[in-house]
Amino acid sequence: MDDRGGSFVAVRRISQGLERENSCHSTSAEVVAGSAAWLSRGLSCVCAQRRESDARPSFDLTPSEEECLQRLQNRIDIAYDSSIPEHQEALRALWNAVFPEEELQGLISEQWKEMGWQGKDPSTDFRGGGFISLENLLFFARHFPKSFKDLLWKQEGDRSAWEYPFAVAGVNITFMLIQMLDLEAENESAFDLLYCIAFKLMDRQWLAMCASYMDFNTVMKATRHQLEREFLLEDITRLEELPSYSLLTL
Fold it and tell me: Where is the chain membrane-spanning (predicted)?
C-alpha cells in the first residue's frame, strides 16, 4: 500500500499454458516482460533480474514482501472445511452481508441457491477455489456492495435466459487467478481487490458477448486475456490504475 492508498501487485509468473487462438493475444513471454517493467516502475524496492540460465526475470523481495507473499500463499493453500468454526462463520458472514434482513436457516439450506450456489450446501462448490474463494466473495460484498449486488441480481445490460450462477462464478474466478498469477504484493488484500476487478470484468465480457450459460468458459478465457492486456499497459503501477478498476462501484 503506497501513500496514495494504492494496492500494488506484480505478476511474477504467468502459467505457460496460455491460449493462443487469437494472434492479437499476448504471449506469456510478453506478459512477463511487461510485468517486469511494471515492477521497475511501481515497486522500487523489488528488482527484476535475469539469471544467465533462465530467460525469465527473477525478483529480489524485501523480507516484508516475502512475508506478505507467504501469507497469501498460505491463504491459497487452505481448503474449505465445513467443520472449522472460522469457515462456518465466514459463510454466515457472507449471507448476512448479502441478505441482512433474511435469517439463514442453516449452513445447509435451499436458501443458498438464491446466491447462485449449485445446491443447498455451498461447501461442495469450493473445491477449485478453497477457503480463499469464500474470503474473496466476502471482501467483494463488504467493500464494493453495489457492484456485488449488481452482479448477483444481474441488474446491468440485456441478460440471457440462461445466466451464470453468481457464487459458482466467483469460485471459478478465484481459481482462474490462482492458476494465472503468482502475485507479489505489498498489500495482502491486493489479491482480493484483483478478484473484484476480475469479477466485474467477467460480467462486462458476458454482456458484450451476449453470452448464455454454455458460453461461460469462453467468457472466462476472454476475461483472462483482457486482464493480461491490461497488465501490459504503460504507466500502470497499481491496481487502481487498471482500466477495469473503473467498473467497480462502492
Answer: none
Cα dihedral 157, 162, 165, 171 in deg (nearest 10): -90
Closest CA to 198 of 157, 164, 243: 243
Write the pLDDT tens digit of every residue in 159-177. Answer: 999 999 999 999 999 999 9
One-letter amino acid at 53 equals: S
Please give the pLDDT value at position 80.
96
Closest CA to 133 of 172, 96, 99, 81: 172
Amino acid in position 146 = K
Burial 73-112, CB ≥16 within 10 A → b, else e = eebbeeebeeeeeebeebbeebbebbeeeeeeeebeeebb
Parallel, antiparallel, or unpaired for β 57-60 and 47-50? Answer: antiparallel
149 contact partners, CB below 8 Å, separation of at least 6? 98, 155
For the chain, the domains span 63-248
Does 40 score more than 60 pLDDT?
A: no
Between CA 114 and CA 32 the distance in angstroms is 40
The mean pLDDT value for 21-49 works out to 33
Determine the pLDDT at residue 60: 63
Helix (H, G, I), strand (E, B) or coil at 10: strand
Helix (H, G, I), strand (E, B) or coil at 158: coil
The dihedrals phi and psi of 83, each to the nearest 5 degrees, come to -90, -10
